[in-house]
Amino acid sequence: MDVVDSWSRVMGLLRECAPADHAELPGPATEEMLAAAEERMGVALHPDLRAWLLLNNLDLPEKDRDDDVQCCGFDGFPDEGSFYLGVTAMERLYANRSVSGGIDPPDRPEHPFWRNEWIPFLSDQDGWMGKFVDVRDGRVGRWFVGEITVTGEHASLADYFDSVARTLTKVAEGTHPTCSAVEGRLRWT
Fold this sequence. Notes:
Layout: H1 3-17, H2 19-24, H3 31-41, H4 47-53, E1 78-79, E2 82-84, H5 87-97, E3 103-104, E4 114-115, E5 118-123, E6 129-134, E7 140-144, E8 150-154, H6 157-173, E9 179-182, E10 185-188
Antiparallel strand pairs: 1-2, 2-5, 3-4, 5-6, 6-7, 7-8, 9-10
Helix pairs in contact: 1-6, 3-5
């Protein structure tokens, strides 16, 4: 399954089990927005990340953004405490994480805490943890400040979204241990 199909499956499940949450998600990014973001970041987006953003640019509306937090997103999706990033939030977090020389620390290129080829697409409010797409090969990894970064946690963005779909399937079935759908919204306990 490709990233468009995987994300469409996630959106179908979200619409089914949490229609109020689904209704609040914004529309797509444009090619112009993505080209401008790539120019500002100085790195090309991986085709899977580009395809996903062309389906949904998950930036909060300007009026709902909080300048006191590193990242803002839609509460409770994909899980409690983390948010999918839209183009603006992605750029902001990327600017905070990227380093001159491209690798942090520079003396550990095989096991860095951060590489400039990693584009964050999910984060907590503070930017301390999240998931990224490696623009070199499309693999999804995760970081947590102070811990070793994990690369290749998922083979692709489509593989990651398949895992989200499995979670939403359990929510829809009422078998997820920490999440349920209440009045059309995901609720984490």
